[in-house]
Design goal:
- Belongs to the lariat debranching enzyme family.
- Its cofactor is Mn(2+); Fe(2+); Zn(2+).
- This is DBR1 enzyme.
- This protein has one domain.
- The protein contains 16 helices and 14 strands.
- The strands form two sheets. A seven-stranded mixed beta sheet has the order 4-5-3-2-1-12-14. It has a seven-stranded mixed beta sheet with strand order 10-11-9-8-7-6-13.
- Helix 11 packs across helix 12.
- The two termini are 35 Å apart.
């Protein structure tokens, strides 16, 4: 089947689908599914905008709300993970995944689904070591800290994914697995993004948690975004026994959704022709969720997952064939994910803007139904309960020193001693945030909605790569070669583009004049910011 993969969407959903339509007109190709690797920005209204960790002048309504309201419907099944610029309050409603609009599915904090027999997994957010061992305790209204920590990857999600044993076809992460750049054309990467050199040479670029998952899951394909550059790599995994067959992962990172950027890729992936055309639950993943339900933590206390170190009675939460069969029996062998999308917030109305609309902590009926069906803890329900008991107030508190009543441990050192989000150097394409005091007053920031009828940018969004059969990556390509197959577009692309009536988009991160009291976006070509604290590059 044909899989379309997109990098950072940044809310440009109309433009993304228009690009797919352009692809169909030019090449008679239409994907069976679209995968988006984060920064999706499922913004429903003005309150959602204020829950997105970007400066106010970059909070644009974009067009997702039209799909949420039902005015439009996604023309292709769309599956996405969260990044570090999201409407966190919206995505938080669906910790186990769910529909954010008809035909648009969010994988949750971490998740695995199946489509036409292809197993698709992903983990949302970016890595920050200081939040990695905390629970999911954040909820609206966010403060200047929790609006960021809400999208930081947690160890429990990594732990769950590491319990999986069945082969993974596709996996998505927003930030790159650390060290993956050593398996691709590193020289070319540094020519395009020279400011990554220090981290590449010190092997600190990217997420160590994602790297750990890459080593464990060994998926056939791994797709990422975040760093706003196209990069391919081919990683041959080491075998642990003579009986184990060698596995390799084809890695591809893509740019953000802007004209003339490599933000979209079409990949042909083998599928089961007899499998259902519906999006389906993954039985092993459901079984793992059930097995690890006792590890749920909704406090800011730091703790480690169980491991074989003599401190835990149980550390292996992988599931048996019997547990998987039990899940199948619970579902009557019908794995189809129900089309139970529900509106949970008022939708943006261009004729009646509500600039002071406040976000509220919402329990989504999809999550309630999912948890009831499989006997899982509703994380948001637990947070609400904790708030009522006064243990969590939606803000950072002094971390508890005593151990938690859980199979985990709060006394062990962190798995990772350094904090690298995958973008600790100054990236000119990335939105920068200040750590001290934040970028804006969250309660009074302005909202700048997009026009009711945005212009048709499909002509400009023509940077599409089509790779028949499989991604054209080989071990030879991966070792500082020219990687010509990976970067080659259609032969007529440039000629066609010159004939198009192009219209430029306002680029995220472009310089703006004016001297208001607001904190400014830092530019990566300013040497003064080269040594900024890593949180300032989110």
């Amino acid at each position: 089947m044909k899989v379309a993969v997109a990098g950072c969407c940044h809310g440009a959903l109309d433009k993304l689908y228009e690009t797919l339509e352009l692809l169909q007109r030019r090449h008679n190709v239409w994907p069976d599914v679209l995968l988006c690797c984060g920064d999706f920005q499922a913004v429903r209204n003005e309150a959602d905008l204020r829950c997105m960790a970007v400066p106010a002048k970059y909070r644009h309504m974009q067009t997702f709300y039209r799909y949420y309201s039902g005015e439009k419907k996604a023309p292709v099944l769309t599956i996405f993970i969260g990044g570090n610029h999201e409407a966190s309050n919206h995505l938080q409603e669906l910790p186990y995944g769910g529909w954010v609009a008809p035909n648009i599915y969010y994988l949750g904090y971490a998740g695995v689904v199946r489509f036409r027999g292809v197993r698709i997994g992903g983990i949302s957010g970016i890595f920050k070591s200081h939040d990695y061992r905390k629970g999911h305790f954040e909820c609206p209204p966010y403060n200047q800290q929790t609006i960021r920590s809400a999208y930081h990857v947690r160890n429990i999600e990594v732990f769950k994914l590491k319990q999986l044993k069945c082969p993974m076809d596709i996996f998505m992460s927003h930030d790159w697995p650390r060290s993956i750049y050593h398996y691709g054309n590193k020289q070319q990467l540094l020519q395009m993004k020279s400011f990554f050199r220090q981290e590449v040479e010190s092997n600190t670029l990217g997420s160590p948690a994602a790297s750990e998952l890459l080593q464990h899951l060994k998926p056939t394909y791994w797709f990422s975004a975040h760093l706003h550059v196209k990069f391919a790599a081919f990683m041959q995994h080491q075998t642990t026994s003579k009986e184990e067959l060698p596995k390799a992962t084809k890695f591809l990172a893509l740019d953000k959704c802007l004209p003339h950027r490599d933000f979209l890729q079409i990949v042909d992936i083998e599928h089961d022709p007899n499998a259902s055309d519906s999006l389906e639950y993954d039985a092993e993943w459901i079984a793992v969720l059930k097995a690890t339900n006792c590890l749920i933590n909704v406090t800011p206390s730091s703790w480690n997952m169980p491991e074989n170190n003599g401190l835990h009675a149980k550390w292996d939460y992988s599931v048996t064939e019997e547990a998987i069969k039990e899940v199948l029996e619970e579902l009557n062998h019908n794995l189809k994910i129900p089309s139970n999308f529900t509106l949970t917030a008022a939708c943006y109305d261009p004729s009646k803007p509500q600039k002071h609309r406040e976000a509220v902590h919402t329990i989504n009926p999809q999550t309630t139904e999912f948890c009831a069906h499989f006997g899982l803890t509703d994380i948001n329900g637990r947070i609400q309960q904790a708030k009522e008991e006064g243990s969590v107030r939606g803000e950072y508190e002094e971390e508890e020193e005593e151990g938690m009543d859980s199979p985990g441990s709060a006394e062990e050192p962190s798995e990772y001693n350094t904090d690298n989000s995958g973008l600790s150097s100054i990236n000119p394409d990335e939105i920068m945030l200040d750590e001290e005091g934040g970028d804006e007053d969250l309660s009074t920031c302005s909202v700048d909605p997009s026009p009711d009828h945005p212009p048709d940018f499909s002509a400009s969004f023509s940077d599409i790569r089509i790779m028949p059969d499989s991604m054209a990556v080989s071990s030879d390509d991966a070792m500082d070669s020219n990687n010509e197959d990976l970067e080659r577009s259609g032969a007529s692309k440039q000629a066609e583009e010159k004939s198009l009536n192009e219209r430029s988009l306002k680029r995220v991160g472009c310089n703006e004049n004016g001297n208001s009291g607001m904190k400014k976006i830092k530019r990566r070509n300013q040497a003064i910011y080269a040594a900024e604290d890593e949180d300032k590059t989110e």
